[in-house]
Design brief:
Blueprint: H1 8-28, E1 37-38, H2 45-48, E2 49-50, H3 52-72, E3 74-78, E4 97-105, H4 107-111, E5 118-125, E6 130-137, E7 142-147, E8 152-154, E9 157-158, E10 169-172, H5 183-196, E11 202-205, H6 210-217, E12 223-227, H7 238-250, E13 254-256, E14 278-281, H8 284-297
Parallel strand pairs: 3-4, 10-11, 10-12
Antiparallel strand pairs: 1-2, 4-5, 5-6, 6-7, 7-8, 8-9, 12-14, 13-14
Helix pairs in contact: 1-3, 5-8, 6-7
Length: 301
């Protein structure tokens, strides 16, 4: 394969337009009439639920990106279409770059009529490094984007400081966090981190999808989003984290696995991220503290 220099700004503009079009469709749909279906993608309801809105949103994004993808030889990996490709070599391993798309992250809060859902698009190179991240929240019409090395933006404003002054360590988590066998260990570590940082305890926040959880970390001076490793498939997939890994990193935050290594966003074996967990943090101090303590509970294999 020939690796070429891409027009990242042009590609980011295309991704933003695709996210806006998909998000507007998502928000305009009457959720009361939606049929819920379930896919084999994890143990929780949140990870398995899918609707026709997810499928149509992905089709809108694919159509928006098709021409520029063909021009530059960029593969497309979407959450919904990828479910049908088991047993084949995925396009993301055959091309130098691929779009990593979650057409509606947080489907459960979406169908329940509450905040916590978003459209997510990333451009990832074959090494697994995200070069572009775009997230659109249809509920409040907020568009976030980042290009590697060029900062992260909310609308036209550079993201460079927290918008909240919470006195606690804000911890965003999926509902499955509470049922993990190492929940008590993790909670003790989080409380110790808050104490070490001079904060007023821990405030746990549940209910959003992975994309919004990661984005909300940037709103606070001391915050994290933590997904613990587990042996079974699940724990989110590459499309849940690719865009926000770019955005959070460019905003001065932290995105890694729980051992402090870059997220594996293009590994051969699976799209799942359960094997090494996921950690987002608003700053390096919080991240380093949690990594040091979590490695005692979850030694690197």
């Amino acid at each position: 394969m020939n690796r070429v220099a891409l027009p990242l700004q042009q590609l980011c503009d295309a991704a933003m337009q695709a996210a806006l079009e998909a998000g507007r469709f998502v928000q305009s749909t009457d959720r009361k009439a939606l049929q819920r279906h379930f896919k084999n993608a994890g143990s929780s309801e949140a990870s398995r639920i899918v609707t026709e809105v997810d499928v149509r949103s992905e089709a809108i994004i694919r159509e928006c990106l098709q021409a520029i993808s063909e021009q530059w030889g960029i593969a497309f990996v979407g959450e919904e279409s990828s479910q049908d490709l088991s047993g084949t070599i995925p396009d993301r391993l055959l091309e130098s770059y691929y779009w990593c798309v979650d057409p509606l992250d947080g489907t459960l809060p979406y169908v329940e009529g509450r905040p916590g859902y978003a459209v997510s698009i990333a451009l990832v190179d074959q090494s697994g490094e995200p070069l572009i991240g775009v997230v659109y929240d249809p509920l409040d019409a907020t568009l976030m984007h980042a290009i590697k090395g060029q900062g992260a933006y909310r609308g036209q404003a550079l993201i460079n400081q927290a918008t909240s002054l919470s006195p606690a360590l804000m911890v965003y988590a999926d509902t499955s966090f509470r049922t993990h066998e190492n929940y008590a260990d993790a909670l003790n570590i989080l409380n110790a981190c808050a104490q070490d940082s001079g904060l007023d305890g821990v405030e746990l926040v549940y209910g959003s999808g992975a994309v919004k959880n990661a984005c909300q970390v940037l709103e606070h001076p001391a915050a994290c989003y933590l997904k613990l490793p587990k042996p079974e498939n699940g724990g989110g997939s590459i499309w849940d984290f690719a865009a926000t890994a770019c955005i959070v990193d460019e905003a001065g935050g932290w995105a890694s696995n729980i051992h402090g290594k870059p997220l594996e966003l293009n590994r051969k074996g699976s799209t799942f991220m359960n094997h090494q967990g996921v950690l987002y943090a608003s700053n390096e101090r919080v991240a380093r503290y949690l990594i040091a303590k979590l490695q005692v509970v979850f030694p690197a294999s």
